[in-house]
Amino acid sequence: MTNRSRIFQSLFAKLLTIFLMSMGSLALVAYGLIELSRSKDPDRPVMDNLSRYAEYLASDIGSPPNLTRAQEISDRVRINIAIFHGEISWKTNADMPIPERARQALVQPSTVTTKTAYFIFFTRGPFTFVFEIPKVNEFEWRAWRLIVAGVLAFLILLFSYQAVSRTLKPLSWIREGAIRMGRGDFQTRLPEIKGDELGELAVEINEMGSRIEKLLESKRQLLLAISHEVRTPLTRALVSAEFIKDRSVKDALVADLKEMGKLTEEILEAENMGSRHFQLNLERCRASDILLQIVEDKFEAQKDRLEIHCQESSLDWTCDITRMKLVWKNLIENALTHSGKSERAVQLRLEETPDLVSFEVRDYGQGVSSEHIPHLTEAFYRTDASRRRHTGGYGLGLYLCRLVVEAHGGKIKIESQVAQGTRVRTQVPRQVSLKNS
């Protein structure tokens, strides 16, 4: 593309062209209105034509006048006619007014204009003819001029608006694409309209999205590879740890190895769910059965620290049972961990409606300050930067919970206050479809 063609196809040139066309059109409308208003004697052209017309009518009536013919002409063209002969007068309409100026004009043929009509006089022998032709209402004429001018101006502005909107339409596409990319959807691609700066910007944004997507995919593959490679050495280390004779050393080492194994499994699961090929393994179940089974299998020793409110329901729930168990187990573990020395039990509340399955975990531990709450479900986010095991792990648990809940088409909500505890609530549709996954 040459420099000249680039200039003419640039966004600035398009907007300038629209602006100049709009201003030129509005200027023409304004000029026409001014010219109509500047006429010093707007009635003169009309009166000249009416005089010739009245002369033709007077000839048609004749001299001496044919009164029957005069009445016919008056009825047909809807004008009033008066005929004077000395002191004798005849009118087609008895109420026909004769203005004072018109009476003075009877002495010699002339034309008189009033606010409502044109009076035209012709003398034929001893007879004087007066024609009253109604005048167009001046207010109505001015109003029509304003209406026409307003309509023209509106059409010009409407055309300008449509032209500018069409020119700047790519901005809305760019905005929507930026919002989707900001939410992590880097597969978004913008329509590429060649020719101007917005088209070039769309191309650059698409290329940026492709580069970021490739970068994230490389990171995901690296994490998966590392996690897979770590699993085998961890398994060997756990087996070897069993041969350590010192009980305290053995227990500490096994705990660390299990923590590393758990981290590896969470990384693999999180990256698996982030894959575009991921799908849920949907099964029918009862939500209350899942909760009671989790408590029995994982928290039997801590059952006295749990207060369970389980609403029984005869309705089936379609979900990925394994992953929903993981979510609820993680939430209960977090609540027990962060309850600290609180004497109040952790509350588990399961509520079901025909459309939703809601699970809430409420603890009365140290709580979380408000600035941390929006980030708690982000990967590897920790309020405690030290990432010590007894303060909550590595920041993948809630992130994984959010991925699972959102994959089911649900949502997770966290409320917390320092020194008052935390409430985490998940809401998942009762009938989960493969679209959600």
Say how many strands there are. Answer: 12
Mean pLDDT, to the nearest integer, reads: 79
Please count the helical segments: 11
Largest sheet: spatial strand order: 2-1-5-4-3
Sum up the overall morphology in one term: elongated
Largest sheet data: 5 strands, antiparallel
Q: Give the end-to-end Cα distance, rounded to a whole number of Å.
A: 46 Å
SSE order: HHHHEEHEEEHHHEHEEHEEHEE
β-strand amount: 15-25%
Q: Can you tell me about this structure?
A:
The protein has helices at about 5-10, 10-40, 45-60, 65-75, 100-105, 140-180, 195-240, 245-275, 285-300, 320-340, 395-405; strands spanning about 80-85, 90, 110-115, 115-125, 125-135, 285, 305-310, 315-320, 345-350, 355-365, 410-415, 420-430. The chain is of the alpha+beta class and about 425 residues long. It folds into 4 domains: about 5-40 and about 140-180, no CATH class; about 45-135, Beta-Lactamase, CATH 3.30.450; about 195-275, Signal transduction histidine kinase, dimerisation/phosphotransfer (DHp) domain (Helix Hairpins), CATH 1.10.287.130; about 285-430, Histidine kinase-like ATPase, C-terminal domain (Heat Shock Protein 90, 2-Layer Sandwich). The strands form 3 sheets. It has a 5-stranded antiparallel beta sheet with strand order 2-1-5-4-3. Strands 7-9-10-12-11 form a 5-stranded mixed beta sheet, with helices on one face. α6 (about 140-180) packs parallel to α7.
